[in-house]
Amino acid sequence: MYRLLENDTKGVTLNKVKGLITSADSSLALRMTLLVIFLFFLNVTSAFAFNEFQTFIEQKSKKQLNCAYCHSHVNGPNGNEAGQLGSLSEDEKQLTAYNQFVKSNKELVDSPILNEFGNYLVKKLGYEKITNAQNDPSLLVNELNDLDLDHDGISDAQELLDGTLPNDPLDGSPVKLLINNLKKKWVEIIFQITMVLLLIVSLLRFRS
Amino acid sequence: MFEKIIQNLKDRFPVEKINFENFVLKKEVPVHKLSWVYYLGGMTMFCFLIQVITGLLLLPYYQSNIINAYQSIEYITYFVPSGFLVRNLHAWSSSFMIFFAIIHLFTVFATKSYQKPRELTWMTGVILLIITLGFGFTGYLLPWNQLSVNATKVGMEILQSSTSFLPGIFKLPGEFFATNLRGGASITQSTLSRFFALHVVILPFIFLALIMIHLFLVQLHGMSKENFKVQRYEKFFPNFFIKDIAIWLFLFLVLLVIAQTIPYDSFLSYPLKAQYIDNSPTPAGIKPEWYFLFLYYPLEVLPKTFVIVGSFIVFIAILFTPIFFKKVSIKFHFLIVLFVFAYLVISTVWGGDIVQIIRK
């Protein structure tokens, strides 16, 4: 089921890229195509991994992480397995290269080598900002400060510092999740407490 | 000699007490300062009931094959209505069950409530605790994630080497049990199928049979009162029973609130929760559930043979406590409980740090 969903997403994004290149601005499309072809000849595909971010998050959270924080594959983009550059079709390779050359965040598309958070990061900040943040990964924290991709009540910036996944509402610091979920579900919880306590009180009245 | 055996059997199984009057109408519970210990067994059983109900609700959705197991857990968590709550309740109540079972064992030991005629009640209780730990061990593998598979590998290696120091044919049982539990030389589909069968059919049946014997013996001999200053007696029906139900309701409320607010897996880093794929790098932080850490950390730093032999001796001492501790004073029992409890807390909470310090 997940594989199907994944394929669907790739299909949609590929069409989106093709649509962008063919319909919107023919001169831009021509430049884009030339750049992508140029990119293939230079074989710069390995430039997508950002180990600095992983090191930064590991230092802050004191947890050992892996590339699956932002990437589709646990070992990052370089390799031939599913979700890595070597396994991509020609269309998908163009897709991964495309984001590096667009200037507007609105034109960015989902890349098959990135996971939900990786793609979200690229779309929110733009490729240029992310590349700049390589030298100072703390910039990422400032940029993501008020965002919360998974709506778990913990900001993406805080999730970066905690080493938890910003795209999984069930992954987060247990204490922070407890506080946020109590805030979110307090009406249900108060109702449950009241009902159970009423039940207990009425039960205890039956003692002889 | 024969008469002595008959008398001992009569003391342990007073069949003349098996009637409605003794079991229901006249049944009384002693009231004293430590009356709260009488509720711990019931709380453990209530957690088991939650386990059964939530387990049955999870059963239609879980797929016990290595290709779909992980995805089926993800499906339950993110797509099945209330799936997250049911799974989280299952996970939390398993930990609560083991916690209450351990505290129950401690209080029975500390108050010397295992004395004649309750020796069999104690022994069935100890075996029930071992089966409960078995539930935890077999259930751990079912999500088929990095942590579960790698921790099971470690567990199986420990089991395999548990008898390897013995001479001749005595070294075979460890290898035999590990190979048969795994269904081969490594953790594969056979292992998952066997663990699933153990978790949902074999262990529950053994547990149910034993808990019926355990409860029957508790009913037969009544609550232990020998080592307490009894203030008065209260009727089991309805007074004690109603209080028992009230405590169960409160426990359910606590579990419900926790299950809604703290995902059980949130204590793990995400690489440990990822799907297990053959030959993928093993993430850092592989360790068993909290209730096995007291045994796991010593295995990390001390000679395996020493820990395994030591654990076996401790297990035999616990199982046959009514024989070995018959003449030991109640004060010494209390000291043993304090010492063991301190060890369990320190090894579970700070065991990892201690191991790191020793290794440095």
Question: Mind explaining what this structure looks like?
Answer:
The complex is a heterodimer of chains A (208) and B (360). Chain A is mainly alpha-helical and 208 residues long. Chain A has helices spanning 2-24, 26-42, 51-61, 90-98, 116-125, 127-132, 138-143, 156-162, 174-184, 186-204. Chain A is built from ten helices and no strands. Chain B has a single domain, classed as Up-down Bundle (Cytochrome Bc1 Complex, Chain C), CATH 1.20.810.10. Chain B has helices at residues 2-12, 20-25, 40-58, 69-78, 83-110, 119-141, 146-161, 172-182, 189-221, 236-261, 270-273, 293-301, 304-319, 321-324, 330-359; strands at residues 28-31, 232-235. A two-stranded antiparallel sheet of chain B has the order 1-2. The N and C termini of chain B lie far apart (61 Å). Chain A binds chain B through residues 1-2, 63-66, 68-69, 74-75, 163-165, 168, 170-174, 177-178, 181-182, 185, 188-189, 192-193, 196-197, 199-200, 203-204, 206-208, and chain B through 71, 74-75, 77, 84, 235, 238-239, 242-243, 245-246, 249-250, 252-253, 256-257, 260-263, 265-267, 269-271, 273-274, 277, 280-281, 283-285.
Indicate the overall shape of chain A: elongated
- What would the principal axes of the Cα set say about the shape of chain B? globular
Question: So, CATH architecture of chain B?
Answer: Up-down Bundle
User: How many distinct domains of chain A?
Assistant: 2
Average pLDDT over all residues of chain B: 95
SSE order of chain B in H/E notation?
Answer: HHEHHHHHHHEHHHHHH
Q: What is the domain tally of chain B?
A: 1
Summed over residues and divided by their number, the pLDDT of chain A gives a mean of 79
Structural class estimated from helices and strands of chain B: mainly alpha
Rg over alpha carbons of chain A:
22 Å
Major sheet size, sense and barrel closure of chain B: 2 strands, antiparallel
The largest interface is: A-B, 37 and 36 residues
Strand content of chain A: under 5%
Instruction: Order the strands across the largest sheet of chain B as they lie in space.
Output: 1-2
